[in-house]
Amino acid sequence: MNYFELDASSVGRGAGWKMINYNTLQSDAPGLNPKIPWPDGHRVLSRGPWTLPAYVEAPHFVIDLKTGHAPRDIEVIDGFLFISRKFKAVFESLAPGACEFRSCTTEYLNGAPGPETWLCSVTGAFKEAVDIDNSVIRVSALGLYMSTAVNRNYKFRQEVIMDAHIFTLAETPKLLYCDENFKAETRNSEIKGAIFKLVGKS
User: What is the dihedral of CA 93, 95, 99, 101, to 10 degrees?
Assistant: First the structure.
């Protein structure tokens, strides 16, 4: 089984949409991240569940097509996924119960409603799911995997991942991984903006 890192592709003109309530989403901290990182700190293992903070209001976006593109099926802000209804259906089909979703509000400059957009977090994280001895990988002194490793090639432990199609690793905060089934369904659903980087096999 092949495994991939899932991310959003970059676009030349950039995003033409802006979250206007970024600094007021939470009563005790600005932005999307919880005040105390999930839930045990960025440098503590094991991590998870990666549940979303208790936002006081939904993320609200205003779209200006003169400055860039509208939200695609997948976008990333601060490591958080923002996905379309179509891509949400893929997540729910292949990973039922493995994700947390929050509805966002979007509108164009003229006040017309924008595309349906969801904030998504894959809430679980596998620990020690990579066979270090049989992988091409860099590991920090804290035991975290270095995402900048050149020619990384993970040997995943199937007995740990089991049949998960989309997941995170405790040792690589905020990176998403998926199997070839998830990639195939994403392609079949004609999801726009998703890119897949092969990172290893089981």
Answer: -10
List the Cα angle 175/124/1 in 5-degree steps. 65
pLDDT digits (tens, 9 = 90+) for 101-121: 999 999 999 999 999 999 999
Task: Give Cα 174 to chain centroid, integer Å.
Answer: 7
Q: Counting runs of H as helices and runs of E as strands, what totals does the chain give?
A: 3, 13
Q: Which residues contact 2 (CB under 8 A, 6 or more apart)?
A: 179, 180, 198, 200, 201
Q: Which residues are within 8 A (CB) of 135 and not within 5 positions of it... i.e. 6 or more apart?
A: 152, 153, 154, 155, 200
Residue with tokens 């049949």: 163
How far apart, in whole angstroms, are the C-alpha atoms of residue 86 and residue 15? 20
Evaluate if pTM is beyond 0.70.
Answer: yes
Rounded to whole angstroms, the Cα distance separating 168 from 156 reads 12
